[in-house]
Amino acid sequence: MSTVNSSIQDNPYLSGLIQGNGTQATQSGGTKEADNELGKDAFLELMVAQLKNQSPLNPTENGEFVAQLAQFSSVESLDNLNTSFDTFQSNFQSNQALQASSLVGRYVTVPASETQLPPNGVVSGVVKMQNAASDVFLTVSNEAGATVDQIPLGSLPAGEHNFRWDGKQLELNGQLLDWQSENETVNPGEYSFRVAGSSGGNSEQFDTSLSAQVSSVTMGANSQLTLNLKGMGSVGFDQVEQFNY
Model's pTM, two decimal places? Predict the structure, then answer.
């Protein structure tokens, strides 16, 4: 764009035009810095002004003019691409919020040690064991911290083990254990789950993930989705490990 730059320097009209794109008048009579980006409208205006004010003795060469047209086309394409991306982003966010709203009332599994036992329902969970262990027990405590049940799980290999507890019986990896709670009734409410066993001669506690019902979904800053879970509180959508029934 050397021809454009030389024309601007030699022509008062073009110099004033480019300066007008660099500053804006304020209501108090002063000036403030404007956006330094040259949009397609200003670019085209400068190019047309150059053609109108070029010297008849030294007109713009065809090659230079074609190069300027190509630059204008690139500027316009980038502007259209930005507009298309903004539209895509808006549609994606709306679709994401719509999909998240369908989770309300459903159950998801997230890393946790406490959750809510629903009326006539079950708590689904996952025990994550990096090492094999023996004498593994699942201890269930109520909201007050009192032990409700201590369930023997035996020896378990390393890996993830799925369980389901309804307050009376326990299912481990799809098999119903030969165990039943001595409690006559187990009321719905919040319970904590702790899994520990003996590994390498030492007592070790293992991480758990538990199921919880989605009560609502919140979309925060930067379109971050937050699930509000009964008995757990708020967790990020990216923490969901499993979608249940």
Answer: 0.63
